[in-house]
Amino acid sequence: MKAHTYETQSTITPEKALEFLKEGNQRFVNNLKANRDLLEQVNATREGQWPFAVVLSCIDSRTSAELIFDQGLGDVFSIRIAGNFVNQDILGSMEFGCNVAGSKLIVVLGHTKCGALKGGLDAAQIEGMGMDNLNHLINHFNPIINDIIEENEERSSKNSSLLERLNHQNVKSAIEDIRKQSSTLKRLEEEGKIKIVGANYDVETGAVNWL
């Protein structure tokens, strides 16, 4: 499989880009790989890159987008931050990927057993450890937690039901933030030039479930 060129990228629709990722994850789950020469792709992309998708995922070491979607060099822009949420810099990176570099798809990828979300649920204990920047990060999830937690429900990472609901809602909230905070990406989506979708990676099976 060769690296994408400007010509091949320009023929990919948002729907086809999504299909590429679905097919790639199916290969990954079945322990298969597309036949590609990565060094050849290094040579083919030395003058430029034409990725077809932007994937926002967690920094979790098990969630490398290139691996779980079986993609090669130059195929996807991979944006990673603990808890896969968006901020202005990440939105700027997405705008570059789609409006400048021509990507057709944005995927917000959460995952099961997310440590950042567990930290959000256990914020009271984490804050006692004296890590100022980590505290800032995990407090990002407080509004979502407050919205979904039920009356008298235990706020703890040991509450697997709450953690799962938080994972899904966090992905949905990131998608909402993309549309609300980036007029560029919202316009591209409304014009049908890109899709913005959510997904969840299962760290036990390797499968990506599309939300």
Commentary on this structure:
The chain is an alpha/beta fold and 211 residues long. The protein has a single domain, classed as Carbonic anhydrase (Beta-carbonic Anhydrase, Chain A, 3-Layer(aba) Sandwich), CATH 3.40.1050. The protein is 48% helix and 13% strand. It is built from eleven helices and five strands, in the order H-H-H-E-H-E-H-E-H-H-H-H-H-H-E-E. The protein has a five-stranded mixed β-sheet, with helices on both faces. Strand 4 (195-201) and strand 5 form a beta hairpin. The longest helix has 22 residues, at 160-181. One of its GO terms (molecular function) is carbonate dehydratase activity. Belongs to the beta-class carbonic anhydrase family. Zn(2+) binds at residues 58, 60, 111, 114. Its cofactor is Zn(2+).
Q: What topology emerges from the helices and strands here?
A:
Blueprint: H1 6-11, H2 14-29, H3 38-44, E1 53-57, H4 65-68, E2 76-80, H5 88-100, E3 105-111, H6 115-121, H7 123-127, H8 132-138, H9 142-148, H10 160-181, H11 183-190, E4 195-201, E5 208-210
Family: Belongs to the beta-class carbonic anhydrase family.
Protein name: Carbonic anhydrase
Binding site for Zn(2+): 58, 60, 111, 114
